[in-house]
Amino acid sequence: MGKITVVRRVVQVAMLVLFCLPPLLAGWGLAGLFAGGDGEVATPAEGVLFGSLSSSSVAGITLLDPLATLEAMAASRSLLTASVLVGALLVVLVYGLVRGRAFCAWVCPVNLIGEGVDAVRRRVGIAVPERTVDRRAKIAVAAAVVAASALVGFPVFEAVSPIGAVNKGLAFGGFAGAGTLVAIVIAELLVSRRVWCRALCPLGGVFQVLGRVGQVNVAIDHDACIHCDKCAEACLADPAILTPVLAGEDTIVRAGDCMACGACVDACPAAALRFRLGRPRGASRGKADSAPVAACPSSR
Ligand code: SF4
Ligand code: SF4
Questions:
Q1: Do 18 and 135 share a domain, yes or no?
Q2: Who contacts 19 (Cβ-Cβ below 8 Å, separation ≥6)?
Q3: Same domain, 60 and 121
Q4: What is the domain extent for residue 206?
Protein backbone atom coordinates (compact mmCIF):
# COMPACT_ATOMS: atom_id res chain seq x y z
CA MET A 1 0.00 0.00 0.00
CA GLY A 2 1.44 3.41 -1.00
CA LYS A 3 2.08 6.26 1.42
CA ILE A 4 -0.88 8.39 0.32
CA THR A 5 -3.22 5.41 0.54
CA VAL A 6 -2.02 4.67 4.08
CA VAL A 7 -2.77 8.27 5.13
CA ARG A 8 -6.13 8.08 3.38
CA ARG A 9 -7.08 4.89 5.21
CA VAL A 10 -6.27 6.56 8.53
CA VAL A 11 -8.45 9.56 7.60
CA GLN A 12 -11.34 7.34 6.38
CA VAL A 13 -11.37 5.34 9.61
CA ALA A 14 -10.89 8.48 11.72
CA MET A 15 -13.97 10.06 10.09
CA LEU A 16 -16.08 7.03 10.96
CA VAL A 17 -14.82 7.04 14.54
CA LEU A 18 -15.38 10.80 14.81
CA PHE A 19 -19.06 10.43 13.94
CA CYS A 20 -19.52 7.36 16.15
CA LEU A 21 -17.87 8.91 19.22
CA PRO A 22 -20.54 11.46 20.28
CA PRO A 23 -23.28 8.89 20.96
CA LEU A 24 -20.72 6.65 22.70
CA LEU A 25 -19.55 9.54 24.88
CA ALA A 26 -23.18 10.39 25.62
CA GLY A 27 -23.62 6.93 27.10
CA TRP A 28 -24.93 4.95 24.15
CA GLY A 29 -23.36 1.65 23.14
CA LEU A 30 -22.36 0.86 19.57
CA ALA A 31 -25.35 0.31 17.25
CA GLY A 32 -27.61 2.20 19.65
CA LEU A 33 -27.33 -0.38 22.43
CA PHE A 34 -27.17 1.00 25.94
CA ALA A 35 -27.48 -0.12 29.52
CA GLY A 36 -30.30 1.37 31.57
CA GLY A 37 -33.69 2.69 30.60
CA ASP A 38 -34.65 5.35 28.09
CA GLY A 39 -34.72 7.99 30.79
CA GLU A 40 -31.01 7.52 31.54
CA VAL A 41 -29.78 8.08 28.02
CA ALA A 42 -28.32 11.50 27.33
CA THR A 43 -28.86 13.02 23.93
CA PRO A 44 -25.66 13.33 21.87
CA ALA A 45 -27.24 16.29 20.07
CA GLU A 46 -26.08 18.45 22.97
CA GLY A 47 -22.40 17.74 22.16
CA VAL A 48 -19.96 19.69 19.97
CA LEU A 49 -20.33 17.25 17.07
CA PHE A 50 -23.46 15.31 16.26
CA GLY A 51 -24.98 13.76 13.20
CA SER A 52 -23.98 11.77 10.15
CA LEU A 53 -21.87 12.32 7.05
CA SER A 54 -24.95 13.68 5.25
CA SER A 55 -26.16 16.04 7.92
CA SER A 56 -24.35 17.09 11.07
CA SER A 57 -24.04 19.81 13.63
CA VAL A 58 -20.52 21.02 14.45
CA ALA A 59 -20.19 23.59 17.23
CA GLY A 60 -23.78 24.59 16.64
CA ILE A 61 -23.40 25.03 12.87
CA THR A 62 -25.63 22.76 10.77
CA LEU A 63 -23.66 21.19 7.94
CA LEU A 64 -25.62 19.57 5.11
CA ASP A 65 -23.99 17.93 2.13
CA PRO A 66 -24.82 19.70 -1.17
CA LEU A 67 -27.20 16.97 -2.38
CA ALA A 68 -29.09 16.87 0.92
CA THR A 69 -29.37 20.67 0.72
CA LEU A 70 -30.81 20.58 -2.81
CA GLU A 71 -33.19 17.77 -1.83
CA ALA A 72 -34.37 19.63 1.27
CA MET A 73 -34.95 22.83 -0.71
CA ALA A 74 -36.82 20.93 -3.44
CA ALA A 75 -38.91 18.98 -0.93
CA SER A 76 -39.84 22.03 1.14
CA ARG A 77 -40.00 24.35 -1.88
CA SER A 78 -38.18 26.94 0.20
CA LEU A 79 -34.67 28.27 0.61
CA LEU A 80 -34.29 26.78 4.12
CA THR A 81 -33.16 28.96 7.00
CA ALA A 82 -30.22 31.33 6.65
CA SER A 83 -28.11 29.39 9.18
CA VAL A 84 -28.65 26.08 7.34
CA LEU A 85 -27.79 27.75 4.03
CA VAL A 86 -24.58 29.24 5.47
CA GLY A 87 -23.52 25.80 6.75
CA ALA A 88 -24.30 24.21 3.38
CA LEU A 89 -22.35 26.93 1.54
CA LEU A 90 -19.39 26.29 3.84
CA VAL A 91 -19.37 22.63 2.76
CA VAL A 92 -19.59 23.63 -0.92
CA LEU A 93 -16.76 26.16 -0.49
CA VAL A 94 -14.39 23.77 1.25
CA TYR A 95 -14.90 20.88 -1.17
CA GLY A 96 -15.09 23.24 -4.15
CA LEU A 97 -11.72 24.72 -3.27
CA VAL A 98 -10.02 21.41 -2.56
CA ARG A 99 -11.63 18.83 -4.90
CA GLY A 100 -15.33 17.99 -4.88
CA ARG A 101 -14.84 14.27 -4.90
CA ALA A 102 -12.15 14.38 -2.22
CA PHE A 103 -15.18 13.67 -0.02
CA CYS A 104 -15.61 10.34 -1.84
CA ALA A 105 -12.01 9.19 -1.44
CA TRP A 106 -11.15 10.61 1.98
CA VAL A 107 -14.42 10.73 3.93
CA CYS A 108 -17.23 8.57 2.53
CA PRO A 109 -17.49 5.12 4.19
CA VAL A 110 -19.13 3.63 1.09
CA ASN A 111 -15.90 4.20 -0.84
CA LEU A 112 -13.98 2.48 1.95
CA ILE A 113 -16.33 -0.50 1.65
CA GLY A 114 -16.10 -0.38 -2.16
CA GLU A 115 -12.32 -0.52 -2.03
CA GLY A 116 -12.55 -3.46 0.36
CA VAL A 117 -14.95 -5.29 -1.98
CA ASP A 118 -12.62 -4.56 -4.91
CA ALA A 119 -9.66 -6.03 -3.00
CA VAL A 120 -11.62 -9.17 -2.05
CA ARG A 121 -12.91 -9.56 -5.60
CA ARG A 122 -9.38 -9.44 -6.99
CA ARG A 123 -8.03 -11.78 -4.32
CA VAL A 124 -10.65 -14.47 -5.01
CA GLY A 125 -10.37 -13.94 -8.75
CA ILE A 126 -13.85 -12.64 -9.62
CA ALA A 127 -13.52 -10.77 -12.94
CA VAL A 128 -16.01 -8.01 -13.75
CA PRO A 129 -15.96 -5.30 -16.45
CA GLU A 130 -13.93 -2.20 -15.65
CA ARG A 131 -16.65 0.16 -16.82
CA THR A 132 -20.22 -0.47 -17.95
CA VAL A 133 -21.96 2.81 -17.15
CA ASP A 134 -21.00 6.32 -18.28
CA ARG A 135 -19.55 8.08 -15.23
CA ARG A 136 -21.66 11.16 -16.00
CA ALA A 137 -24.78 9.09 -15.25
CA LYS A 138 -24.47 10.06 -11.59
CA ILE A 139 -25.08 13.72 -12.47
CA ALA A 140 -28.36 12.67 -14.09
CA VAL A 141 -29.15 10.53 -11.02
CA ALA A 142 -28.58 13.58 -8.79
CA ALA A 143 -30.94 15.70 -10.94
CA ALA A 144 -33.56 12.93 -10.83
CA VAL A 145 -33.25 12.66 -7.03
CA VAL A 146 -33.81 16.40 -6.59
CA ALA A 147 -36.79 16.34 -8.99
CA ALA A 148 -38.29 13.34 -7.17
CA SER A 149 -37.82 15.11 -3.81
CA ALA A 150 -39.81 18.05 -5.15
CA LEU A 151 -42.54 15.71 -6.38
CA VAL A 152 -43.01 13.68 -3.23
CA GLY A 153 -42.17 16.39 -0.68
CA PHE A 154 -39.31 14.67 1.14
CA PRO A 155 -35.58 14.11 0.49
CA VAL A 156 -35.78 10.74 -1.27
CA PHE A 157 -32.10 9.81 -1.39
CA GLU A 158 -31.63 10.46 2.32
CA ALA A 159 -34.22 7.76 3.01
CA VAL A 160 -32.14 5.10 1.24
CA SER A 161 -28.66 6.63 1.36
CA PRO A 162 -25.89 4.10 1.98
CA ILE A 163 -23.60 6.95 3.05
CA GLY A 164 -25.47 7.72 6.24
CA ALA A 165 -26.30 4.02 6.71
CA VAL A 166 -22.78 3.07 7.71
CA ASN A 167 -22.21 5.56 10.47
CA LYS A 168 -25.84 5.81 11.56
CA GLY A 169 -25.91 2.02 11.82
CA LEU A 170 -22.64 1.85 13.77
CA ALA A 171 -23.57 4.68 16.11
CA PHE A 172 -27.32 4.46 16.52
CA GLY A 173 -28.34 1.09 15.16
CA GLY A 174 -30.42 2.77 12.45
CA PHE A 175 -30.12 0.72 9.30
CA ALA A 176 -32.10 2.70 6.73
CA GLY A 177 -29.96 2.48 3.61
CA ALA A 178 -28.48 -0.90 4.57
CA GLY A 179 -30.43 -2.47 1.68
CA THR A 180 -28.79 -0.03 -0.73
CA LEU A 181 -25.42 -0.93 0.73
CA VAL A 182 -26.03 -4.66 0.20
CA ALA A 183 -27.14 -3.99 -3.41
CA ILE A 184 -23.96 -1.98 -4.00
CA VAL A 185 -21.73 -4.76 -2.68
CA ILE A 186 -23.49 -7.34 -4.89
CA ALA A 187 -23.23 -5.07 -7.95
CA GLU A 188 -19.53 -4.44 -7.37
CA LEU A 189 -18.80 -8.14 -6.86
CA LEU A 190 -20.80 -9.39 -9.83
CA VAL A 191 -21.64 -6.60 -12.29
CA SER A 192 -19.03 -3.87 -12.69
CA ARG A 193 -15.97 -2.57 -10.89
CA ARG A 194 -16.81 0.31 -8.52
CA VAL A 195 -20.02 0.99 -10.45
CA TRP A 196 -21.73 2.80 -7.56
CA CYS A 197 -19.00 5.32 -6.79
CA ARG A 198 -17.94 5.78 -10.40
CA ALA A 199 -21.30 6.06 -12.10
CA LEU A 200 -24.37 6.00 -9.88
CA CYS A 201 -23.97 7.81 -6.56
CA PRO A 202 -25.92 11.09 -6.79
CA LEU A 203 -23.78 12.78 -4.14
CA GLY A 204 -20.74 11.79 -6.19
CA GLY A 205 -22.49 13.44 -9.17
CA VAL A 206 -22.87 16.74 -7.33
CA PHE A 207 -19.25 16.60 -6.15
CA GLN A 208 -18.19 15.73 -9.72
CA VAL A 209 -19.65 19.04 -10.92
CA LEU A 210 -17.94 20.89 -8.05
CA GLY A 211 -14.66 19.10 -8.81
CA ARG A 212 -14.20 21.03 -12.03
CA VAL A 213 -12.84 23.98 -10.07
CA GLY A 214 -10.84 22.10 -7.42
CA GLN A 215 -7.37 23.40 -6.68
CA VAL A 216 -5.74 20.12 -5.58
CA ASN A 217 -4.77 18.33 -8.77
CA VAL A 218 -2.61 15.45 -9.94
CA ALA A 219 0.18 16.77 -12.20
CA ILE A 220 2.41 14.81 -14.55
CA ASP A 221 6.06 15.13 -15.52
CA HIS A 222 5.85 14.02 -19.14
CA ASP A 223 9.62 13.48 -19.37
CA ALA A 224 9.56 11.02 -16.47
CA CYS A 225 6.53 9.01 -17.63
CA ILE A 226 7.41 5.56 -19.03
CA HIS A 227 3.84 4.91 -20.28
CA CYS A 228 3.28 1.80 -18.21
CA ASP A 229 -0.40 2.68 -17.52
CA LYS A 230 -0.15 1.59 -13.89
CA CYS A 231 -1.76 4.89 -12.84
CA ALA A 232 -4.82 4.26 -15.01
CA GLU A 233 -5.11 0.71 -13.65
CA ALA A 234 -5.05 2.08 -10.10
CA CYS A 235 -7.49 4.97 -10.65
CA LEU A 236 -10.42 4.82 -8.25
CA ALA A 237 -12.61 7.13 -10.34
CA ASP A 238 -12.22 6.10 -13.98
CA PRO A 239 -9.05 5.24 -15.93
CA ALA A 240 -10.28 7.50 -18.76
CA ILE A 241 -9.76 10.67 -16.72
CA LEU A 242 -5.99 10.17 -16.96
CA THR A 243 -6.04 9.91 -20.77
CA PRO A 244 -5.34 13.62 -21.49
CA VAL A 245 -2.24 13.70 -19.27
CA LEU A 246 -0.94 10.33 -20.49
CA ALA A 247 -1.47 11.42 -24.10
CA GLY A 248 0.62 14.55 -23.47
CA GLU A 249 -2.36 16.85 -24.04
CA ASP A 250 -2.46 18.27 -20.53
CA THR A 251 -0.31 18.65 -17.45
CA ILE A 252 -2.94 18.01 -14.76
CA VAL A 253 -5.95 15.72 -14.34
CA ARG A 254 -8.84 18.17 -14.82
CA ALA A 255 -11.85 15.89 -14.74
CA GLY A 256 -14.29 16.76 -12.00
CA ASP A 257 -14.42 13.05 -11.28
CA CYS A 258 -10.86 12.94 -9.88
CA MET A 259 -11.14 12.14 -6.16
CA ALA A 260 -7.62 13.29 -5.28
CA CYS A 261 -7.21 9.81 -3.82
CA GLY A 262 -3.54 9.61 -4.77
CA ALA A 263 -3.80 5.98 -5.93
CA CYS A 264 -2.22 6.94 -9.27
CA VAL A 265 0.62 8.81 -7.53
CA ASP A 266 1.26 5.79 -5.30
CA ALA A 267 1.15 3.39 -8.27
CA CYS A 268 3.53 5.28 -10.56
CA PRO A 269 6.90 3.46 -10.67
CA ALA A 270 8.62 6.47 -12.30
CA ALA A 271 7.52 9.13 -9.79
CA ALA A 272 6.04 11.02 -12.74
CA LEU A 273 2.89 12.03 -10.86
CA ARG A 274 2.47 14.31 -7.86
CA PHE A 275 -0.17 16.55 -6.32
CA ARG A 276 0.05 20.26 -7.11
CA LEU A 277 -2.02 23.27 -6.13
CA GLY A 278 -3.78 25.37 -8.75
CA ARG A 279 -5.20 24.82 -12.21
CA PRO A 280 -2.94 26.02 -15.03
CA ARG A 281 -4.73 26.73 -18.28
CA GLY A 282 -4.51 23.71 -20.56
CA ALA A 283 -5.13 22.88 -24.20
CA SER A 284 -7.65 20.21 -23.31
CA ARG A 285 -9.46 22.21 -20.66
CA GLY A 286 -12.94 20.75 -20.27
CA LYS A 287 -12.31 17.83 -22.59
CA ALA A 288 -11.75 15.40 -19.77
CA ASP A 289 -15.30 15.77 -18.56
CA SER A 290 -17.00 15.91 -21.93
CA ALA A 291 -15.20 13.07 -23.69
CA PRO A 292 -17.48 10.14 -24.47
CA VAL A 293 -16.75 7.02 -22.49
CA ALA A 294 -15.38 4.30 -24.71
CA ALA A 295 -16.30 0.70 -24.15
CA CYS A 296 -13.66 -0.85 -21.95
CA PRO A 297 -13.69 -4.61 -21.84
CA SER A 298 -10.75 -5.01 -19.47
CA SER A 299 -11.22 -6.67 -16.16
CA ARG A 300 -8.91 -7.14 -13.17
S1 SF4 B 1 -6.64 10.44 -11.26
FE2 SF4 B 1 -5.38 9.71 -9.51
S3 SF4 B 1 -6.03 10.99 -7.79
FE4 SF4 B 1 -7.62 11.20 -9.38
S5 SF4 B 1 -9.17 9.62 -8.88
FE6 SF4 B 1 -7.73 8.69 -10.35
S7 SF4 B 1 -6.20 7.66 -9.04
FE8 SF4 B 1 -7.30 9.11 -7.73
S1 SF4 C 1 2.14 5.13 -13.77
FE2 SF4 C 1 3.58 6.85 -14.03
S3 SF4 C 1 5.01 6.13 -15.60
FE4 SF4 C 1 3.24 4.75 -15.69
S5 SF4 C 1 1.90 5.70 -17.28
FE6 SF4 C 1 1.24 6.54 -15.29
S7 SF4 C 1 2.40 8.46 -15.08
FE8 SF4 C 1 3.42 7.28 -16.68
A1: yes
A2: 49, 51, 52, 53, 56, 167, 171
A3: yes
A4: 1-214
CB 264 less than 6 A from any atom of ligand 1: yes
- Name the residue of 106, 259, 276 to mutate for ligand 1: max ligand atoms within 8 A of Cβ: 259
- Over residues 95-127, the pLDDT tens digits come to 999 999 999 999 998 999 999 999 999 899 888
How far away, in angstroms, is 272 Cα from ligand 2 center?
6
Ligand 1 geometric centre to CA of 234 (Å): 8
* Judgement on whether residues 144 and 261 belong to the same structural domain of the protein: no
Residue with CA at minimum distance from ligand 1 atom 1: 258
Phi, psi of 190 (to 5 degrees): -120, -20
Residues 45-85 pLDDT 10s? 556 666 667 677 777 777 888 998 999 899 998 887 888 88
Closest ligand 2 atom to Cα of 224: 3
Identify which of 119, 118, 120, 94 has the alpha carbon closest to the alpha carbon of residue 107.
Answer: 94
- Whether residues 258 and 122 share a domain: the answer is no
Residues 176 and 31 in one domain: yes
Residues 244 and 193 in one domain: no
Total domain count, the chain: 2
Same domain, yes or no: 26 and 163: yes
CA–CA distance, 112 with 55 (Å, rounded to integer) = 19
